[in-house]
Structures are given as structure tokens and as C-alpha cells.
């Protein structure tokens, strides 16, 4: 009976808050809500942020991170989780320890490094800790082009180099790799993401590139949608298609909020479809 009561898909984000509501934990919870899963959150960092940039940030102490993870593990039945902004090497380590201690299901690692406005969200020395401690725990990692370059430690220019980099990242111990195309601006027509799956099949998923600066939180939205689908038991290949379509609809159906890099429209995707889920 208890198991039945606790069986509704529950998802966890371990990340930073965005007071402006467009990225980080706020984007994650909005995405989870729209995908009809129950969203929970471990706050790793607090940012004072709006669409113009990050004005300040505060890292949460280890004891409080551990306490949040313990609270969730004691009560909830988390079926998938994602990481976002983790700030520094120490916090990457605290999160990796908690993810080893508790079973929160498949892990989506979004290796958030720099905000669209240019603020550092992960210190340089922490990249190696992500590689050593977090990637081996991940079911899927979702770097953008810039993050992928930092992980492999060299330039990635052509489509063949994107594919080779995904393979290199997979060899670090992650089953599935997605290199996101938002920063691959060579094509003005499309935004194409590359997917390399655990079974060695691969896929480019392309969608029309929208000419807009209202792309605050695109990466968070993709990774939290992916986690939401995985929590429902959807297989990885279908989950990535839904996540890409969800982000596309959220960028396309723009809303006018803030004066800078505006947020996405998290309720745009398949509104009638959602009503039926
Ligand atoms: N202008 C755009 N038009 C269409 N799709 C886009 C656009 N910008 C980004 N995307 C899509 O959004 C998703 C996230 O990609 P992106 O490379 O922007 O991630 P990110 O840089 O990690 O995002 P964030 O900076 O929010 O963390 C990908 O599916 C990408 O193809
Ligand atoms: C707390 C937090 N997490 C992630 C991002 C990345 O989003 P973006 O690159 O769109 O600014 C952010 N700005 N803030």
C-alpha cells in the first residue's frame, strides 16, 4: 500500500537557484511540472540573478546539502535525478558522495560551467572533479559545445570532431553522451544536438534555430526534461526526442519577461497532450 502511494514519478534536481526564475532549479521544477512528474530539489547554491546576469551567489554548507539529501531519501521514491550548477570542486565532491550513498535512479549530469551572461558557475579546478567523481556515476552527460571542449581539453570544430569528442567523453565512464548544439552557431538555420548512446548507436537531432536572445535556461530545461522522462520509465532514445521537442517549443513560443537573456515558455510544449497525461 505504502509503495503504491509512493509510486508517482518523483524526480530530483541538485543544482543552484535562479532568483529570476529562468534557469537552475526554477527551470528544472517548471519543466518537471509541465512533464507531469513530481519535482524535488537539493539546493547546492543560491544565486541573485535576473535576465541581465548573476549579481551574487552563495554556496550551501556541506551539512545542509547532506541534510537535504537525507530528507529526500527518508521519504521519497526518487526515480531519476539531475545535477546542474555545483559551483566548486568541494561541492562536486559532496554531491558525488550523496549520489553514491542514496539510490536516486538514473543520473543526468548537466556540467554547467558558465551562465549565458558570462558568470562562472563552476570553478576551473572543479572540472577535473566532475570528470573523476561525477561522470562515472552518470547515466547521461549533457555538455554544451564549450563544456565539451573543457572536458576533452581540446578544440571541437567540425561535426566529425563533435562525434569523436562524444566518444572520448563516453570513455571517461558515462554511458550516454549528448553534445548540445546551441553554441554551434556555424549554422544559422538549425540547432543540432549529437547523441551517442550506450549501445554505440548515435543520432543528430536538429531543429530550426530561433533567432532570439530568449534562451536563458535552455540547457537546464533539456536535462530536467530528460530526467523527467527517465523517471517515468521512458527509454533513453525516446526521452531525448521528447526533451529536444520540449526545449524547441519552449524557445519558439517566446514570452516577454525581463530585459536581457529572457526565459523560456515552459508550458508551451504539447499543451493538449499534457492535459491527457
Ligand atoms: N537559438 C536556438 N534555437 C533553437 N534551439 C536552440 C537555440 N539555442 C539553444 N537551442 C537548443 O537548446 C538546447 C540547449 O542547448 P545549449 O547549447 O543552449 O545548452 P546550454 O548552453 O547548456 O544552455 P544553458 O546556457 O541554458 O545552460 C539544445 O537542444 C539546443 O539545440
Ligand atoms: C543557477 C543557474 N544554473 C544554471 C544556469 C545556466 O543557464 P544559462 O546559461 O542559460 O544562464 C544559470 N544561469 N544559473
Automatic annotation (TrEMBL):
Q: What keywords appear on the UniProt entry?
A: ATP-binding, Kinase, Nucleotide-binding, Thiamine biosynthesis, Transferase
A Gene Ontology biological process noted in the UniProt record is: thiamine biosynthetic process
Q: Which InterPro entries does its entry note? A: HMP/HMP-P_kinase_dom, PM/HMP-P_kinase-1, Ribokinase-like
Entry EC no(s): 2.7.1.49, 2.7.4.7
First-tier enzyme category under EC: transferase
Query: In what pathway does it function?
Result: Cofactor biosynthesis; thiamine diphosphate biosynthesis; 4-amino-2-methyl-5-diphosphomethylpyrimidine from 5-amino-1-(5-phospho-D-ribosyl)imidazole: step 3/3; Cofactor biosynthesis; thiamine diphosphate biosynthesis; 4-amino-2-methyl-5-diphosphomethylpyrimidine from 5-amino-1-(5-phospho-D-ribosyl)imidazole: step 2/3
Q: Which reaction does it catalyse?
A: 4-amino-5-hydroxymethyl-2-methylpyrimidine + ATP = 4-amino-2-methyl-5-(phosphooxymethyl)pyrimidine + ADP + H(+); 4-amino-2-methyl-5-(phosphooxymethyl)pyrimidine + ATP = 4-amino-2-methyl-5-(diphosphooxymethyl)pyrimidine + ADP
Q: Where is the Pyridoxamine kinase/Phosphomethylpyrimidine kinase domain?
A: 18-265
Its GO CC terms are: cytosol
Q: Which GO terms describe its molecular function?
A: ATP binding; hydroxymethylpyrimidine kinase activity; phosphomethylpyrimidine kinase activity
State the family it belongs to: Belongs to the ThiD family.
What's the protein here called?
Hydroxymethylpyrimidine/phosphomethylpyrimidine kinase
Species whose genome carries this gene: Ligilactobacillus pobuzihii
Amino acid at each position: 500500500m505504502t509503495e503504491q502511494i509512493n509510486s508517482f514519478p518523483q524526480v530530483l534536481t541538485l543544482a543552484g537557484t535562479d532568483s529570476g526564475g529562468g534557469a537552475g532549479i526554477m527551470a528544472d521544477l517548471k519543466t518537471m511540472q509541465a512533464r507531469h512528474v513530481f519535482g524535488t530539489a537539493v539546493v547546492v547554491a543560491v544565486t541573485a540573478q535576473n535576465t541581465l546576469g548573476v549579481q551574487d551567489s552563495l554556496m550551501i554548507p556541506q551539512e545542509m546539502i547532506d541534510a537535504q539529501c537525507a530528507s529526500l531519501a527518508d521519504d521519497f521514491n526518487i526515480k531519476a535525478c539531475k545535477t546542474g550548477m555545483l559551483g566548486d570542486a568541494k561541492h562536486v565532491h559532496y554531491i558525488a558522495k550523496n549520489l553514491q550513498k542514496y539510490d536516486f535512479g538514473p543520473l543526468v549530469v548537466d556540467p554547467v560551467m558558465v551562465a549565458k551572461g558570462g558568470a562562472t558557475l563552476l570553478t576551473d579546478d572543479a572540472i577535473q572533479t566532475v570528470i573523476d567523481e561525477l561522470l562515472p556515476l552518470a547515466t547521461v552527460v549533457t555538455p554544451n559545445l564549450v563544456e565539451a571542449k573543457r572536458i576533452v581539453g581540446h578544440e571541437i570544430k567540425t561535426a566529425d570532431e563533435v562525434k569523436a569528442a562524444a566518444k572520448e567523453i563516453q570513455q571517461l565512464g558515462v554511458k550516454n553522451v549528448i553534445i548540445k548544439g546551441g553554441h554551434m552557431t556555424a549554422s544559422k538555420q538549425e540547432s543540432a544536438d549529437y547523441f551517442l548512446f550506450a549501445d554505440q548507436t548515435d543520432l543528430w537531432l536538429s531543429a530550426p534555430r530561433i533567432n532570439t536572445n530568449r534562451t536563458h535556461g535552455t540547457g537546464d530545461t533539456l536535462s530536467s526534461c530528460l530526467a523527467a522522462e527517465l523517471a517515468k520509465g521512458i527509454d533513453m532514445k525516446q526521452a531525448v526526442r521528447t526533451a529536444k521537442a520540449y526545449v524547441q517549443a519552449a524557445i519558439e513560443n517566446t514570452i516577454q519577461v525581463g530585459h536581457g537573456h529572457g526565459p523560456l515558455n515552459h508550458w508551451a510544449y504539447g499543451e493538449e497532450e499534457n492535459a491527457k497525461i
